[in-house]
Amino acid sequence: MAAKKPAKKAATKVAKKVAKKVAKKAVKKVVAKKAAKKAAPKKVAKKKVARKPNAAFMVALKPSALLAAIVGDKPLSRPDVTKKIWAYIKKNGLQDSVNRRNINADAKLGPIFGGKKQVSMFDLTKLVSKQLS
Q: Nearest 5°: phi and psi at 95?
């Protein structure tokens, strides 16, 4: 029995040495990865180029008589018409208080909305485009 005990002690000493070597290698790998990340060149951000508006949107269109009551009777581009309609909606508080995506119709917007009492803001541009020529 006395012979077995020193063998176990030797085995545990060897196992501890191996474990230390493995741990040192793991630490070296982590340190090397961190150094590689720090040394990597940083990407240069691209400068933002101002977007050019699509020429089709910038064409001045004449509003119908129904739409002219809101935006005026002068020819306007689509973005200008949308801005004026939203200004009218906000000025008169026509956005639904519960669901802000919906727009409530008043006397001027009712005919443009096709008689609907409420329209989604996503349908608004579709309905307004029918009123431009």
A: -75, 135
Place of tokens 């720090």: 38
**81 in a structural domain:** yes
Would you call 114 exposed, middle or buried from its count of C-beta atoms within 10 A (0-12, 13-18, 19+)? exposed
H or E segment and range at residue 8: helix 4-39
Structure tokens at 48: 């933002």
pLDDT tens track for 94-109: 999 999 999 999 999 9
Domain assignment present for 121: yes
3-state secondary structure 38-95: HHCCCCCCCCCCCCCCCHHHHCCECECHHHHHHHCCCCECHHHHHHHHHHHHHHCCCE
Supply the pLDDT for residue 22: 78
The CA-CA-CA angle for residues 60, 126, 71, to 5°, reads 45
pLDDT, the chain, mean: 84
Q: Total domain count for the chain?
A: 1
